[in-house]
C-alpha cells in the first residue's frame, strides 16, 4: 500500500472512535465521511450471525429489493428457451440465450451480476454449479432467480434486488448502496436489508442471532454498529 493511500485511510479511521458503537443513523452519515477514494465507493453491511451454516436448517439466504437500488448498473443474463427469449429481452435482460451461454460459461465467462433461468432448463445448467456456485451466480428458486415469470425477475434484478447468503463462518455480507447516496437513502436501504435478515432467522438458531454488525465503504475503515439499533430495524 502506498504512503498516500495509507494516509487517507488513517485520516478516515481517525473519524471513528474505537471505543464507541454507532447507531445506524450515525453510521450512515459517517460512512460517507470516511470514504476517501476517488470513485463512487460501495457501502457495505456485514453481519456476524449466531448460526452454524454447516447445518442446512441454519443456512440464512434470501433476497431483498432495496428501495433506492444499489447504485450499480446490474448486468442480467437470462438462460431461457426460445419461447421466453423475447420476454426476457423486453424486460431489459442484457444477455439472453441458452446453449451458447452455457458454452461460454463452461469456457470461463461469468461477466454478469445476476443469472435468471426457467425451471425447464435447470437440468441443462446444473453442470455449471461448480463455476457459478462459488461466485454466487447459480440460479436458485429461493432467491427468485429460477422462475417462469422471467420478465418480473429481470425487472427486479435491474431495479436493485440483491441476493445474499451467509458464508461458512456465519458472516453475511451485502452491498446496500453507494457513498453518493444521501444518508437517508443508505439508512432506508440498510433497514430493508436488516428487516429481511431478521425475518429469515432460523427456528433452530439459539441465543443471539445478530452478534455484531459493521458498515464500511470500499477500502474504508469499518464502523461498528450498536446491536440495539440493528435488531430494532
TrEMBL record:
Key word rRNA-binding present: yes
What GO cellular component term, any one, is given?
A: large ribosomal subunit
Ordered alphabetically, the record's keywords are: Repressor, Ribonucleoprotein, Ribosomal protein, RNA-binding, rRNA-binding, Translation regulation, tRNA-binding
Which domain of life does the UniProt lineage start with?
Answer: Bacteria
* SUPFAM superfamilies attached to this UniProt entry: Ribosomal protein L1
Q: Which GO terms describe its biological process?
A: regulation of translation; translation
Q: Which Pfam families match?
A: Ribosomal_L1
Which molecular function GO terms apply here?
Answer: rRNA binding; structural constituent of ribosome; tRNA binding
Q: What does this protein do?
A: Binds directly to 23S rRNA. The L1 stalk is quite mobile in the ribosome, and is involved in E site tRNA release.
Instruction: Share what the entry says about its subunit structure, partners included.
Output: Part of the 50S ribosomal subunit.
The record's similarity note reads: Belongs to the universal ribosomal protein uL1 family.
Q: What is this protein called?
A: Large ribosomal subunit protein uL1
